[in-house]
Design brief:
By secondary structure, the chain is α/β, with parallel strands linked by helices. About 25% of the residues lie in helices and about 20% in strands. It is built from ten helices and 23 strands. Helix 5 runs antiparallel to helix 6. The protein is globular.
């Protein structure tokens, strides 16, 4: 089948999550049209399709706003996932962002001879479109694909094994023994949800982890950190956060199986390695009460449970893998060394938003939605400067038609 070819009068944005929407919205305010390609049939598919029911934003809403639009005043400090999705839908409408859905990008490559990006995408009918434009904005994010580790003896375990992206509620697990592999925010919250639904969870904690209270005396811990960072160096702020965590959460976490890293504070590890500290919203109380068992790493799965690295056997009727996600950029971005093999810009923050030949990235800072917003503002401003210089027009808030169909390509698919 011959591929259609579409000329894009502006940037090609891959991804319609918060990063892609932010980039398109900021470009719109500069009078720059864009095309947003999304493999799913909705915006923010991670939030809409791959999150559990009780999920809320882990940070206060003022730190999660996208550029140009605050959350409604009626929203609580920690909006629910449904409220966040509603906010994103309103955001897209306000800035006239209309993604082209069911466009799964197979490859994106810079054509040096033409000085243009060629992005090939296909829909469910396997019809292929090649989008051609001067700029490419990578906005697929840090959580594009789920991580499913390989475990010895996995085939021996006969119960259901699901990734946290498939987990919605603890109701189907009522009365069951559930092994939750992973102790990040998702792992902790899934264990808490399982307890609330009468299940008996065991949480696998393989590595050291920083656990912080979500709030201290009614003030968000993240707000305290942001305030302290205005006056103090990061390492000192990390020390203060660890001290406050001991004060509010207690000093018995190592005894509970939750040891802190020997080096690197919570903010330092988040910024340098993407290891987000856990914000406790009640799981520690359940651990202390014996309702959540903390166990070490899995050695191998067996029929009826798993053998752990310390030799103990943990009985389980089901397994939930709270093992996170990873970037998928290396799978489709070709011929560029801007991204590492792990799918992150090689340049360290704050320089990782701009590459060569009109290549940009939004949402790979490992700094959450605040990092997304910062990237989007920088990217849009940089592209707008070049766009208006080329078009010799005065920036305005309106956008022209951003895609024009050309003759079908002779490339066969």
């Amino acid at each position: 089948m011959a591929a259609r070819t579409m000329w894009v009068n502006g940037p090609i944005i891959v991804g319609a999550g918060p990063a892609g929407l932010s980039a398109a919205a900021c470009l719109h305010t500069h009078g720059v049209p864009s095309v947003v390609l999304e493999r799913d049939d909705c915006i923010a598919s991670l939030w809409q399709r791959r999150t559990y029911d009780r999920l809320r934003l882990h940070l206060p809403k003022q730190f999660c706003e996208l550029p140009g639009m605050p959350f409604p005043a009626s929203y609580p400090e920690y909006p629910t996932k449904h409220q966040f999705v509603s906010y994103l839908e309103s955001y897209a409408a306000a800035f006239h962002v209309q993604p082209r859905f069911r466009q799964s990008v197979a490859s994106a490559r810079f054509d040096h001879a033409a000085g243009l990006w060629r992005v090939r995408a296909s829909d469910p009918s396997e019809s292929t479109t090649e989008y051609i434009g001067r700029w490419l904005v990578v906005a697929t994010g840090e959580n594009a694909e789920r991580i499913v580790p390989e475990f010895a003896g996995a085939g021996s375990f006969k119960g259901p094994v699901t990734h946290v992206s498939e987990y919605k509620s603890g109701e189907p697990y009522r009365g069951a023994r559930v092994l939750v592999v992973g102790c990040g925010n998702s792992g902790m919250e899934v264990c808490l949800d399982l307890c609330d639904h009468g299940a008996r969870p065991s949480m696998v904690v393989r590595d050291a982890v920083h656990v912080l209270p979500r709030e201290m005396l009614g003030v968000a811990t993240f707000s305290v950190a942001v305030l302290l960072l205005r006056f103090l160096p990061l390492q000192l702020v990390d020390r203060i956060l660890v001290l406050l965590a001991g004060l509010f959460l207690g000093h018995d976490l190592p005894r509970l199986g939750l040891r802190r890293p020997d080096s690197g504070g919570p903010l330092e590890l988040k910024n340098t390695r993407g290891r987000t500290p856990v914000l406790d919203i009640g799981a520690l109380e359940k651990i202390r009460a014996g309702q959540i068992a903390v166990v070490p790493g899995v050695e191998r799965f067996v029929d009826g449970g798993a053998e752990m690295v310390d030799g103990r056997f943990v009985a389980a009727d089901a397994v939930v893998l709270a093992t996170g996600y990873h970037s998928n950029v290396p799978q489709w971005l070709k011929g560029s060394d801007f991204f590492s093999g792990e799918g992150y810009p090689k340049a360290e923050f704050p320089e990782g938003w701009k590459g060569e030949s009109g290549l940009y990235s939004v949402g790979f800072t490992r700094r959450g939605l605040a990092g997304v917003s910062l990237d989007a503002i920088r990217v849009a401003g940089d592209i707008a400067t070049a766009y208006h210089q080329d078009s010799k027009t005065t920036p305005s808030s309106s956008t022209d038609c951003s895609v024009a169909q050309m003759v079908p390509s002779q490339t066969q698919t």
